[in-house]
Design goal:
492 residues, disordered N terminus, globular
């Protein structure tokens, strides 16, 4: 196996050794599997993960090796099928097996049963001390300039950090506007979305857009929908959440907008298109099976109208993610935010709040309330399809994630919105709100930078925390110390 894979840390091997699985193991071909002896972990670089295991498969007991891979397809991808060191493998364990392939073959042509392990792991296996955002950055022990940052006054450091925070906001606004123009261009081409092969010609790049180009509310709804779903995905699932929103687009969702229960239907669409609903034989709880069947029934009525991409379970990340941040829970929250967007006129509601609420603290609290989503229904008691949660889930989207959505999505979105339609005063108000709002901050990188620069008391002000993130991404992580205003002074 690939020893460098982040998925395969010691916890997985401990689970295998101790047989800590949710239910009795069943191979993809339907045979019961009993781990008599898990084998001895192989610490060599080459060869199967466990040697000399004893596994009962059906009515027969086998003695041999065990190989564990992230995906079923890794057996061939890693060359195990042509490597004689894997000839004694008696069970191929894959966390994901999207096509439910029952066997792999060794170099000597022997057929080896497959087990999909991911669906048997406990929900809390991924509950680690690191948040998604911390993992995304890869960790930071200290700033190289930290020991000498005292050479700058707090005012000098804050001025630089503040400017970086402003630069970061401008980058977000530019990204929002560029995507808006792209959506308009695709609509004019009548192109399916997303299309990776279309050519944004020089004529497009040179085109001067005016506010009349963006009068269709569906453009703005699609844009905000994509941005919200991307934010709900955190670092590990943001790409696939964004892609899901681009494929299951507003034009398709408008077909079900008048349905009797939009949220339930939207969940059906997302979980079926996303490939997250497990096969019936994997669901032993009656309530889970009933919910999954309802999801499939709802989708059966709609799937003939859907002609875009499908995803599979192997594309979603659950490992080393806290259960409350699982994509299943975030999709449930996303369906409810989508209901607000398409059924409850979320964009006009936010616009009116920005126009009418003059107290900025009241305004930020009012905006936050729109994005905090309390749990309900099936997902109030489940993190995943195949097993109930140990306790009740209180929120699909909590206040901390709501704050992140406001800072990273809502404010850049409405800054562009007001600019496009020529309302400079409200655009300026949004920018002022960004500079003045505060939020709780759990990002390890930001905390470490604040500590190194002796700016811990400023960490909750959004413009400074965003500036510290920009400092890390644009300078610290790229070793551009002498291009940084702080580094130039400290190291010279």
């Amino acid at each position: 196996m690939n020893r460098g894979s982040k998925v395969f840390e010691k916890e997985i091997y401990e689970l295998w050794k101790k047989h800590h699985f949710l239910n009795e193991l069943i191979s993809v071909s339907g045979e019961n599997i009993d781990i008599v002896e898990p084998g001895v972990q192989n610490n060599d670089i080459a060869g199967p993960d466990f040697k000399n295991a004893r596994i009962r498969i059906g009515n027969l007991t086998f003695v041999g090796d065990i190989e564990i891979d992230p995906n079923y397809t890794d057996w061939k991808l890693h060359g195990h099928n042509i490597d004689s060191k894997y000839n004694k493998v008696i069970l191929h364990v894959a966390l994901h097996n999207s096509n439910n392939q029952p066997y792999v073959y060794t170099k000597d042509g022997r057929k080896v049963p497959s087990l999909t392990l991911g669906e048997y792991l406990p929900d809390d296996f991924q509950d680690t001390s690191s948040s998604d955002e911390e993992e995304e950055e890869g960790g930071l022990q200290h700033l190289k300039c930290g020991a000498n940052s005292y050479l700058l006054s707090p005012e000098e450091k804050l001025k630089f950090i503040s400017q970086l925070g402003i630069d970061r906001f401008k980058k977000k606004c530019a990204r929002v506007y560029n995507r808006l123009k792209e959506l308009k261009y695709l609509k004019e081409l009548h192109a399916k979305e997303p299309v990776v092969t279309y050519d944004l010609s020089p004529a497009f790049h040179d085109r001067v857009f005016v506010h009349n180009d963006f009068m269709e509310k569906e453009l703005w709804e699609q844009l905000l929908y994509e941005l919200i779903f991307e934010a709900l995905g955190y670092s590990k699932n943001k790409s696939i959440m964004l892609s899901l929103a681009q494929h299951v687009n507003v034009d398709f969702l408008k077909l079900i907008e008048s349905d009797r229960d939009f949220i339930e239907i939207a969940e059906s669409v997302f979980f079926n298109v996303g490939g997250l609903i497990p096969p019936d034989r994997k669901m032993h709880d009656a309530d889970i099976a009933a919910y999954a069947r309802q999801m499939k029934l709802n989708w059966d009525r709609l799937k003939t109208r859907y002609d875009s991409k499908y995803f599979d379970e192997s594309q979603w990340h659950f490992f080393r993610i806290r259960p409350q941040n699982f994509p299943t829970v975030r999709i449930a929250g996303g369906a409810r935010l989508l209901n607000k967007l398409l059924k409850e006129n979320l964009i006009p509601v936010i616009k009116r709040k920005i126009e009418e609420i003059h107290n900025l603290n009241v305004l930020i609290n009012s905006l936050r309330s729109l994005f905090v989503i309390k749990s309900e229904g099936f997902w109030k008691h489940h993190y995943v399809f195949h097993q109930p949660a140990n306790g009740e889930i209180k929120y699909f989207v909590g206040s901390s994630r709501a704050d992140e959505i406001i800072v990273n999505v809502v404010l850049p979105f409405f800054s562009v919105y007001f600019d496009v339609f020529g309302n400079k005063d409200l655009s300026k108000k949004v920018f002022t709100l960004y500079n003045r709002c505060s939020q709780s901050n759990e990002n390890k990188i930001v905390h470490e930078i604040a500590r190194s620069l002796q700016l811990e008391d400023k960490i909750h002000l959004t413009v400074y925390s965003q500036g510290m993130t920009e400092l890390f991404r644009s300078y610290c992580s790229k070793n551009k110390c002498l291009e940084c205003e702080i580094g130039r002074i400290v190291f010279n």
